[in-house]
Amino acid sequence: MKIKTLLSEKENGHVIHTIDAAATLLEVVKKLNKYKIGALIVTAEKDGKESYIGIITERNIIREMEKGRKDLLVTKVTAVMTKDVIVATPNDDIETVMAIMTRHKIRHIPIIENAQIVGMVSIGDIIQNLNQQAEITISHLSDYVGVTAKSKVY
């Protein structure tokens, strides 16, 4: 299955939550909490146009907390965000994206098409999709061998 299919099936699959580079980590935490998400795309105005310049995740914040910074809540996003963002495309296979995320130990990956971010996928989205596909396969195989998948009688 392709990432574009996962995005189309995902509730709010094409919603991209962003935060301005000048925002504080307190603002990041509030936004992550409000939308119940784990990452935000960081934006900055460049030549009168909004540009994507990085990503900030819960892990970025936790790493900063571990350093014992006293000014953590007023620290600017740009001080802790990830600048070199790993991305995927809508035509990438889910398994390929999962392997990339596992290799780089990341849980969120922006989806890029024509130099624009068109969505965000989390490892949770991928696992949920693979579980649904497995359930469908089990149901079809059970029907094929003459057993109903949800039946208690075998």
SS-based class:
alpha+beta
Order of helices and strands: HEHEEHHEEH
Strands ordered across the widest β-sheet: 1-2-3
Rg on CA atoms, Å: 19 Å
Helical percent range? 25-40%
Average pLDDT reading: 88
Number of strands: 5
The total domain count is 1
Biggest sheet record: 3 strands, mixed
> Rough shape?
elongated
Oligomer category: single chain
| CATH architecture descriptor | Roll
At CATH level 3, the topology is CBS-domain
pLDDT < 50 runs, ≥5 residues: none
Q: Could you characterize what this model shows?
A:
This protein has a single domain, classed as CBS-domain (Roll). The chain has five helices and five strands. The two termini are 31 Å apart. It has 154 residues and is an alpha+beta fold.
From the structure above, extract its key features:
154 residues; alpha+beta; CBS-domain; 3-stranded mixed sheet; two-stranded antiparallel sheet; 21% strand
List strands and helices in order, with pairings.
Layout: H1 3-9, E1 18-20, H2 25-35, E2 39-46, E3 49-57, H3 58-66, H4 94-104, E4 108-113, E5 116-122, H5 123-144
Parallel strand pairs: 1-2
Antiparallel strand pairs: 2-3, 4-5
